[in-house]
Amino acid sequence: MVKGKLVSFIAPMLIVLAMIDCTPNRNGDKRPIVAITQIATHPALDEVRAGLVEGLKRRGYEDGKTVTIVFKNANGDPSLTLPIAEEFARQSPAVIVPISTASALSTAKATKTIPIVFSGVTDPVGTGLVMNLDHPGGNITGVSDQWPFEAQVEAFLRVFPTAHRIGMLYTRGDDVSKIGVEAMSALSRKLGFELRLSAVSQAADIYPSAVALLRNVDTIYTGIDHLILENLDTLVKAAREARKPLFGGESGSVEKGGVLALSINMTSFGDLTAELVAKVLSGQKPGEIPVAVVTNGDLLVNKTIAAQFGLDLISLQSAGAKFVGEK
């Protein structure tokens, strides 16, 4: 796997403030605008944003003092990502931070001049956001979450060694979901499990599709599909009725009822995004800042669900698992 370089940013406060562009924005405020947008409300995405805001504050860019942070949420509707990006572009912010692939693609379409620092984009090269990770070019850079698919599956199979059939729901025509499907298809051949796929087109499809799929699989992997993750409650309901476990790759799946996930620490991910945003605010060109890539993860276990499946909590904790509860 090709990895972008992680470059640390350390700058004294006086230098940081001296380099900030203090051109008045449309509201007459001389503080530079940091515009943040994300595809949906979801624990993982919200953690990224929280880590970003806190990370900027620690680097001297505090909302209402040295910068003005504005935020827009597409609320799970991909058709809203472009209007949001275009609205931000009209505000002439110092930098736009789209969280998720859909938001990043729309932001890149809306402006070729305003600096963009994306976050939570799994395949920035494959989706055409950047030319390559080390030299992204143009007005864009960011942080990529290269999900450790193989490690996620292996972590589940260590805990559930008799699970041989893994199901996966995915959204038709969704580029991000396609990445997960391709990765899991390749892993099924490598690791020797049977993968059964079920396509959905809208939120209303998830519950009946999950019910049908769970009749023929031992578990369902939640994947990186935004439609599935945003409507995870219906998937959890189907799994509980079938008395079969869910597993995934992010904290929200575990908090809402999945048994476990090998998950990237999204707060730290947001902090790394803040590091790149700080570089841009200090005057560096985004296209010259290597894309940062995060691949490591923590084993998260839902203590309540794990107990329902009779898992040895002491052994899991000894193996480094971190317990979370349902929300």
Task: Provide an overview of this structure.
This protein is α/β, with parallel strands linked by helices. 41% of the residues lie in helices and 19% in strands. The protein contains 13 helices and 13 strands. The protein has helices spanning 13-19, 43-58, 81-90, 101-110, 149-159, 175-191, 203-214, 226-230, 232-242, 251-256, 266-281, 303-308, 313-318; strands at 33-38, 68-73, 95-99, 116-119, 140-145, 165-171, 194-200, 219-221, 246-248, 260-263, 292-294, 298-302, 322-324. α2 (43-58) links the parallel β1 (33-38) and β2. Residues 1-24 have low confidence and may be disordered.
How would you briefly describe this protein structure?
With 327 residues, this protein is an alpha/beta fold.
User: What is the overall number of helices?
Assistant: 13
| Cα Rg | 20 Å
Uncertain stretches: 1-24
End-to-end distance, in Å?
A: 35 Å
Mean pLDDT: 89
The profile of the biggest β sheet is:
7 strands, mixed
Per DSSP E runs of 2 or more residues, the count of β-strands stands at 13
Could you tell me the strand content as a percent range? 15-25%
Strand order in space, largest sheet: 7-6-8-9-10-12-13
- What is the oligomeric state here? single chain
Summing up helix and strand content along with how strands pair, one would put the structural category as: alpha/beta
Please give the share of residues in helix. Answer: 40-55%
Shape: globular
What is the string of SSEs from the N terminus onward? HEHEHEHEEHEHEHEHHEHEHEEHHE
